[in-house]
Amino acid sequence: MLPLITLEEHFLSPSVRASYKQGDDPHDNFPEPMKAKLHSLDKERLQDMDNGNVSLQVISHSSTIGSPSPSICRTANDELHTAIQSHPTRFAGFAMLPMANAPAAVTELTRCVYELKFVGALVNNHINGQFYDDPSFWPIFSRAQELDVPLYLHPTFASSSMAPHSHGNYSSKIARDLSAYAWSWHSETGFHILRLFASGVFDTFPKLKIIIGHMGEMLPFMLDRIIGFTAQWEPHRERGLRQVWDENVWITTSGMFSVAPLACLLRATKMERILYSVDYPYSGNEKGKRFMEEIEESGLVGRNELEMIAWRNAENLLGVHLQQ
Predict the structure, then answer these.
(1) pLDDT number for residue 324
(2) Is 185's pLDDT higher than 90?
(3) How far is the CA of 4 from the CAs of 97, 277, 309, 313, in angstroms?
(4) Phi and psi at residue 171, in whole multiples of 5°?
(5) What 3-state class would DSSP assign to 170?
């Protein structure tokens, strides 16, 4: 079995959970075994990695509501750094950033890359419904480009203004699911990429690196159609959407374990931009391992391409190296 690097793998910081007002922590209703895995940065996590043949896990904080304060982000990142120091060949880190405070986010990203040796940052897809095409967020993109590290744009919980859009003639649980992992998390993240493109982010920062998960957050299926329309947009962008997709965007397989969407992704995306991930512990490492075996058995890609997805592309993007 191939060695595997995974990039969308989460933990929960006690300091972040303690910062919520009573009843506001979205993780309160999670099953206890899942919360235990989220809190574990040692034996249980390592055992789960071994069970799924994961050689290196790039760990990031689970989604939050709103934007944590600079001090909370700093504490959570220090907690993760301590775990990485204990297991330097098995763990790497994406920083948690206070996105509502762009100067503080720039400072924390810089600290995490230079001092903690993190390989980038994972950020919520929005802050209470506000997306990052607003120029107030662009200093963060500028600093990420200067540091040559990726920003992983990750789905997050619907804001109070967004949630009613998912309500309908069905239960509140169904509405909650549709506002999150059953639909809107993915459509809104794909939409965010288009907002960044339309606003000129990728013209202003042509070397910016953005990662999205879940086989491309619906974009690969729609990409050719969207490209046709973006060519008519004004003002005309220096770099078209196809060029941006090929040069600025990387896609992971996180939480998606079927061959059909991968086949679509492979037709729409350069092979060197596709990376394996699990979305641990919300998805299981063993399930991901079986999926990689299924890909190999399907003949959809050759051995070299499978190695690129499994670990080589992650090494090239993040500058990490597996202990062979």
Answers:
(1) 65
(2) no
(3) 26, 8, 9, 11
(4) -70, 165
(5) coil
